[in-house]
Amino acid sequence: MSDQTSGPADLFDMTGRVAIVTGGSRGLGKEMVMAFAERGADVVIASRKLDSCEQLARDVERTTGRNALAVAYHAGSWDDSNRLAEVAYEQFGKVDVLVNNAGMSPLYKSIDTITEELYDKVLDVNLKGPFRLSALVGTQMAATDAGGSIIFVSSIASQRPSPNELVYGAAKAGINNLTYGLSRTLGPKVRVNCIVPGPFLTDISKAWDLDAFNERAAQAYALERGGKPSEIVGAALYLASDASSYTTGALIDINGGPR
Questions:
Q1: Integer Rg of the chain from CA
Q2: How much is the pTM?
């Protein structure tokens, strides 16, 4: 990526770049898609719900004038990772930024009720798919002079798992490890970093008891609240752009300061 900039604001300019965001049709992924497009990037929006991706793609093109491609993508599928990479390169000829944001954390009654099917599904979506997609895209990035940036989205559960997210936390801990490993494997041309979010008030939080959550958050976090989806944007833009040209293998906590 270019190091020719004329001021601090230019460090975050993404004009002419292409970004893939998995899990990009809602929540944190949607915020990142819009932020990248608003700063000049063309975007590939990938998730299981194609209609949601297509709606967001229309919104992106209408409001920013950038190109947006909607792709149906199951993050737990090796073949879907192959297909997503192929489609992105066929459409745009390159990928400058890959955000592995798709994830899942199903509820279970107790650890002894976790089935092999559930265990495998959580590992596939949260670890296997991101590995495969990053291996494909990262290898192609590393073969170019421009290089690129890979961003993983982990979770506070990778460091402090609650009793109802043990498998998810283990998978995300694998993502933390993969961040460091791929930064060594794909450097110096490709930077690989990881955002580690705490509790964000995305669509998923609609199922929470928010009164109970807010009461806990006031005691458990230094900022005494959950995060707003838009508050992921600063870290995402930093890692996707030239602003982070000397940052790789890093885990960046965006978690409100757990006590």
A1: 18
A2: 0.94
Low-confidence stretches of the chain (pLDDT beneath 70) = 1-6, 205-207
In a domain, 190, yes or no: yes
For 88-132, the pLDDT digits (tens) are 999 999 999 999 999 999 989 999 999 999 999 999 999 999 999
Residues marked as catalytic = 168
Assess if residue 252 is contained within a domain. Answer: no
Residue 1 forms part of a structural domain: no
* DSSP, residue by residue, 31-82: HHHHHHHHTT-EEEEEES-HHHHHHHHHHHHHHH---EEEEE--TT-HHHHH
Supply the range of the domain harboring residue 148. Answer: 8-247
> Does some domain include residue 162?
yes
Number of domains making up the chain: 1
CATH number at 203 reads 3.40.50.720
C-alpha 63/C-alpha 80 separation (Å) is 29
